[in-house]
Amino acid sequence: MSIRTAASTVESIQAGNHTDGRVRRNKPVWYGFLGVVMLATAWPVWLRLSEGLAVTDLTSQMPWGAWIAFYIFFVGLSAGAFLLSSLVYVFGMHQFERIGRAALLSAIVSMGVALAFVGFDLGRFERGPITLIFFHWTSPLSWEVRFYVIYIALLTAELVIALRVHKRMVWSVKKSLRWLKILGTVGLPLAIFGVHGGTGTIFAVVKARGMWFGGLFPVIFVVSAMVSGTALLILVHYWQSRASYRRPSKSLLNGLGVVLSGVLAVDLGLLFYEFVVPLLASEHQDLSIITVMTTGPFWWSFWIVQLLCGMIIPFVILVVPRFRANTPAVVLAATMVVIGIVAVRFNIVVPALIPPIIEGYPSNDYFPTLVEWASSAFFIAGGMLVYSLIAEWMPIHEPDPVDELEEDSMVSPEKEVKA
Questions:
Q1: Backbone torsions φ then ψ of 58, nearest 5 degrees
Q2: Residue boundaries of the structural domains of the chain
Q3: Contact (Cβ atoms closer than 8 angstroms) between residue 61 and residue 364
Q4: pLDDT of 124-154, one tens digit each?
Q5: Which of 163, 263, 338, 408 is most deeply buried (CB count within 10 A of its CB)?
Q6: Residue 136 and residue 385: Cα distance in Å, rounded?
């Protein structure tokens, strides 16, 4: 070993030790923040469980609100993250390999948060197992419960195998990779048709509600799942790298930006047909819901948050090569997309329930109460805490050996700014 190589090795070890020290100092801040959020919002959770829906703005005419919107949002995050992991383990797109384990863990945790939201909305968690006992062939909900169970089991098995492959804890890596491909291949139709497509079917079969009823709705759910899942993994990779004092991979973020721009383009096209068909058909129920969304009390959520900030601006950022090559611009676009998809979920659930089904009845009114917002923050912070703890115990973000040889594998944020 030459003197220069030895000096470089010592310098790398010292830099690594210094980085580890800063990471250890930052962890209490992150966990403390999540703990404070959960403690501050625990009382609203207890209020809902003890006093029922009286502490919310939900009524018998307005049965669904923020919790159902967050439920379908996190189901979409889960399905989208899993579909992105399939690019690695099924289709062999190894440029995304470093986020494969993070995608699987994100899918599992997001699914858990989604089920917590829908269980909280129903209010009787102890009755959950009963849904597995009774079954009806024509009920989308009956099918959906079983799809969720199989899906979570499949994700868990795939993550365990991926972790063992990363640690070389299996006697045959080639055989384990084959199993990852088999599980991913089985999970693809399950995620598309069963999990998020099935969630869209729950809405699509409600004939009494305009803008829900129709065969296009499950397709919209699947595409928006890819949009939100891709944006989520961009943020996970970027912020986890920064927290670990590693430079985020520009090539990976650029590739994810290409994927996100593609699915955003499809999502914009589906949004066009989602509105143009009912407008041309002039169906009264559909038109009344479109009016609520575009000119009613939720106009800002549709025009500004969903369409402008969640779709158009990120799409422009991601299709212009100069912007897509800029890491902060890609992260900004992904952040806007995630916020925009939250607005999409609210615009799916709430406006469709505002117009009365029976003509002559007064319109419904809804806006989430402080209890609904605070309890939502409790479950979201809880999901982030679970993800952080598992990532702490397991090598979810640990670079693969080939990644450690890359030029951008280890650098502090201060050095990145100077560069």
A1: -85, 145
A2: 66-205+373-400, 243-367
A3: yes
A4: 878 878 888 888 888 888 899 999 999 999 9
A5: 263
A6: 36
